[in-house]
Amino acid sequence: MTERAVALTGGRTVWIAEAGGGAPLLYLHGIADVHGASFDLLPVHRLLAERVSVIAPAHPGCANSGAEETIESIDDLVFHYLELLDALEIGRFALAGACIGGWIAAEIAVRHPERVTALGLIGAAGLFVSGAPIADVFWETHPKDGVSLAPVRRLLFGDPEGAAARAMFPDPRGVIDQELLRYKLFRFASRIGFNPPYFYNRRLIDRLGRYRGPALAVWGARDRMVPLSHGHAYADGLGAGQLEIVAGAGHSLQVEHPRRVAALIAELVART
Questions:
Q1: How far apart, in whole angstroms, are the C-alpha atoms of residue 144 and residue 150?
Q2: Which residue in 68, 122, 247, 260 has its CB near the most CB atoms, within 10 A?
Q3: Which pLDDT does position 193 carry in this prediction?
Q4: Residue 257 pLDDT exceeds 90
Q5: What are the C-alpha distances in Å from 263 to residues 10, 42, 46?
Q6: Which range, 70-79, 97-106, 134-143, 192-201, has the best average confidence (pLDDT)?
Q7: With contact defined as beta carbons under 8 Å apart, do 272 and 248 qualify?
């Protein structure tokens, strides 16, 4: 893995982690993820790097990326990542994202379908599905009894007491660097997801048909943050979309089932 800062206009910087070689795969991170709760690429990224060139930027204000106070909407984020791709001189690319990153990925794909060769969505937020609201992760980040992060682990993991869940969201709270990493992620997330509409764009579901390339929604059967019905909605709305459900997995299935997720995304990219 290599890491570097990429300069954008106006003195802004984006911190990216890279690994592997071959066709570019832009990976946009979620909460329990690289840049969100881990300083390093996770096993899922390293497995993907055996097949493709993984480019994993940190969202604005996350990890070592510069904060951008002008970002107030999902449209702002789309333009932010288009500018990053231009700076990297990447024309066409495969695209994958988890949770919030999946939402951003879907928004990029429907606006510029000609540039996206494959779209992989892992427990992606972004849609309004009647009767199936996205859970309030901000509320759950308040430690229970002042020390326990069990509620947020339950939202994000199929096994909230498993080793991966406890490593990323430990009781009591972790070392200061890890706390700051998570704080930056939630501060970023609050800019687009704290107020209604809550982690979704009502217009997105009707725009999904604009992207007709290879697409896959990968969902945990026990996702307590973004209900499984959202995975069905993505698969139905995307022109060539499919849904893969991982039994026993929660919202952060890229953490709990890295080999399965990496294989599914790599196979999707290979079809292009």
A1: 7
A2: 122
A3: 82
A4: yes
A5: 39, 14, 12
A6: 97-106
A7: no
Task: Classify residue 210 by its DSSP letter.
Answer: G
Closest by Cα among 50, 51, 61, 65 to 17: 65
User: What is the rounded distance in angstroms from the CA atom of residue 39 to the CA atom of residue 221?
Assistant: 27
Using DSSP, state whether 23 is helix, strand or coil. Answer: coil
| Collapsed DSSP state (helix, strand, coil) of residue 122 | strand
- Residue length, the chain? 272
Residue 202 CB coordination number (10 Å): 9
Look-up of token digits 């939402």: 103
**Of 117, 85, 129, which Cα lies nearest the Cα of 219?**
129
CB burial of residue 259 (10 Å; 0-12, 13-18, 19+): exposed
| DSSP conformation letters of 56-121 | EEPPTTSTTSPP-TT--SHHHHHHHHHHHHHHTT--SEEEEEETHHHHHHHHHHHH-GGGEEEEEE
Q: Is the peptide bond before 197 cis (omega within 30 degrees of 0)?
A: yes
CA gyration radius, the chain: 17
The position carrying tokens 């698969």 is 235
Specify the pLDDT at position 173: 66
Q: Tell the residue number behind the tokens 């809550």, with chain if given.
A: 198
Cis peptide bond upstream of 172, omega within 30: yes
DSSP-derived 3-state class of residue 206: helix
Residues 230-245: tens digit of each pLDDT: 999 999 999 878 999 9
